[in-house]
Amino acid sequence: MRRMNFRTLLCMCLLSLPILVNAQQKLSPNESKVMVNGTSTLHDWRCKVEQLSGNLDVEKSGTTIKSIKLMDVTMIVKSMKSLKEDGKYYDSGMDKNVYKALDADKNPQITFVLKKINSIGANGEVNAIATVKIAGVAKDLPVVGVAKVLPNGSVKITGKKAFKMTDFKVDPPKAMLGAIKTGDDITVDFDLLFK
Question: What predicted TM-score, i.e. pTM, was given to this entire model?
Fold first, then answer.
């Protein structure tokens, strides 16, 4: 039997190690969805964010996320559109109340910037802290999501976050001269695809 030379042995050892790949990826806005859900004295409501962008820098090994070095998402306030139960849009009057409450002229964007990763579980569950800025007020919030590497190398991050509008000094919107009031609690559902 021939003896293996050192170079061949080294190559075989290196090939048996998991390969870590750094990937900088951009948010695919047409394949991503952010929904803001809330309540009111009349009925539950929801708004879809139509314009968003973002960046992701991850270290992955095969289909597993090993670390997230950077993640940011920017949402345009005046692209938020109120949706009916059937998926059709309400008239723009509903949206104007949202833009007014969020002071969209002075603060046209909502931003999410990853600050710290606490843990990444074997199933892709990510426990993190993010700096969220709404209506000019920035707060650090705990966020939990699931990150998955797709077969084509894209990364999908899904989850939801509940908080109060007043946490960001936002007065819950009112309509019909105050006859309809929205609740303070909202939930943001996110389904983000980075390519």
Answer: 0.83
